[in-house]
Amino acid sequence: MHALENEGVAMDAPTRVLKALNHEEPDRVPAFESAFTNNTIMAHYGVPPTGGLTDGLEAIKNLPNKDEIVRMFLKSRPQVAKGLEPAFEFFRRVKLDIGLSVTSLFPRRLTDDGFIDEYGRIMKPEKASADGTVTLNYYGGYFHDFDEYESWEQPDPTDEIRMAGFLAGRDVQKKMNDEVFVIPSTGALMECTWEGFGLERFSRLLTHGKQVKKVFDDRGKFTLELVKILAENDAQMILLWDDYGYKNGLFMSPRNYRTYVFPWIRQICQAAHKNDCRIMLHSDGDLIQIFQDIIDCGVDALNPIEPTTANPDYDIFKLHEKYGDKITFVGNVSPMMLANGSIKEIEDYCRKLIRELAPGGGYILSSGHSINPAVTLDRWQAMLRIREKYGNYPIKVPS
Predict the structure, then answer these.
(1) What is the per-residue pLDDT for 271?
(2) 3-state secondary structure string across 244-278
(3) I need a surface site. Which of 38, 274, 319, 334 has the fewest CB within 10 A?
(4) What's the number of domains the chain is made of?
């Protein structure tokens, strides 16, 4: 469909997003945030701030059966849907097209101030600012060595809590008349693996080829089977949480990614595509050494194309020039700009993103990481304002 055919026709969110991923022009540029932790902004749009996870864990932390209580909640599709609704109602009001439901990363064992999740990551929810915004923070790995990892019960892709999370998201999408496209998200290979051990212990594990291969294969088999289940149940798009790098480069060598990670990512993408499902990969950091590998695996969209890496060549405009017809770009307005930049700077950059990346589809507007408590309302609204003014197809943004 040509852009002129879209004029005056409002699409629902799934259609809008999937057209962009197909490198076709929808009615307007889709928008997304992989994480939105800012109660001040949400309250401005009529979504009341809440302590959320922190309050819930605090209420049950002294109960002898607290782990079972958490599982009972996660198995309850209506309860999970109720928990998703406030955030997705906010997304609907500000015209963010994609919301995420959760199908992994669940608490396995509660602690006094947080939990150990099913991948062995020690997580602690904390109120990050005066407005009560809660962020979930990583505090290290539970596994001290490979033997301790082997004694841990592996996550089960068929666990009913996963389908409950997926279907709860679908219920909320239906309730909101497809104004928000709710897609399931899951941990994948790299991020969950190193975080279960902690970076130092994981680095030592890399010297033991058979052991590290076993861990990556465990993660790969789980993720592949879960993606198959979701795609076979009509998931149209799935997000993989899988940070591969940081601001100065990759967490491990490109060779190790090609040995342990990408063979599984390729299978995951193939399984999704077989069922007409798309894969969005979320990875922070400078990925320039493995960017072609990510495309070769069949990843459909990459988020967030972090704009504050140390590498001047990891630039969304340069990457788009080289790879723009092969993958959908999702990003990359700097959170630092949204916290401290001038309104004009934000407006100019968002205009440039839309002008240079959006024509022909293949672009979704987003921050270059997340909307955290430091982002201010006026700066966030400047980003929205530019999309509202210039984000309709056909794209007509003045130079």
Answers:
(1) 98
(2) CEECCEECCCHHHHHHHHHHHHHHHHHHHHHCCCE
(3) 274
(4) 1
Q: 399 lies in a domain? A: no
CB contact at 8 A, 139 and 124: yes
Phi and psi torsions of 278, nearest 5°: -105, 155
Is there a domain that residue 149 lies in?
Answer: yes
- Are the C-beta atoms of residues 394 and 331 closer than 8 Å to each other? no
Asked, for residue 398, whether it belongs to a domain, the answer is no
| 167 membership: H or E segment, kind and range | helix 160-175
Q: What is the pLDDT of residue 53?
A: 64
Which pLDDT belongs to residue 49?
67
- What sign results for the dihedral spanned by CA atoms 103, 105, 107, 113? negative
Three-state secondary structure readout of 86-126? HHHHHHHHHCCCEEEEECCCCEEEECCCCEEECCCEEEEEE
Phi-psi region of 328 (alpha: psi -120 to 50; beta: other; left: phi over 0): beta
Sheet with 121-127, edge to edge strand ranges? 107-110, 115-117, 121-127, 134-141
Enumerate residue ranges in the chain where pLDDT < 70. Answer: 1-8, 49-55
Exposure b/e, 342-363, CB count within 10 A at least 16 = b: eeeebbebbbebbebbbbebbb
Residues for the chain: how many in total? Answer: 399
H or E element in which residue 226 lies: helix 209-232
Indicate whether this model's pTM tops 0.90: yes
Q: Specify the pLDDT at position 50.
A: 61
Count Cα neighbours of 228 within 13 Å in the Cβ-side half-sphere. Answer: 11
Residue with tokens 């928008």: 31
> Is 148 within a domain?
yes
Q: CA gyration radius for the chain?
A: 20
- Helix (H/G/I), strand (E/B), else coil: 295: helix
Residue 268's CATH number: 3.20.20.210
Exposure of 388 in the CB half-sphere (CA atoms within 13 A): 10
Distance of CA 131 to the CA centre of its chain: 24
pLDDT digits (tens, 9 = 90+) for 316-329: 999 999 999 999 99
Which of 102, 142, 139 lies closest to 123 in space, CA to CA? 139
pLDDT for res 60: 84
Contacts for 67-71: CB closer than 8 Å, 24+ residues apart: 67/107, 67/108, 67/109, 67/110, 70/107, 70/110, 70/115, 71/161
Backbone angles phi, psi at 271, to 5 degrees: -65, -40
Written as six digits, the tokens of 350 are 């968002």
Strand order in the sheet with 98-102: 98-102, 181-187, 237-241, 278-282, 301-303, 328-333, 363-367
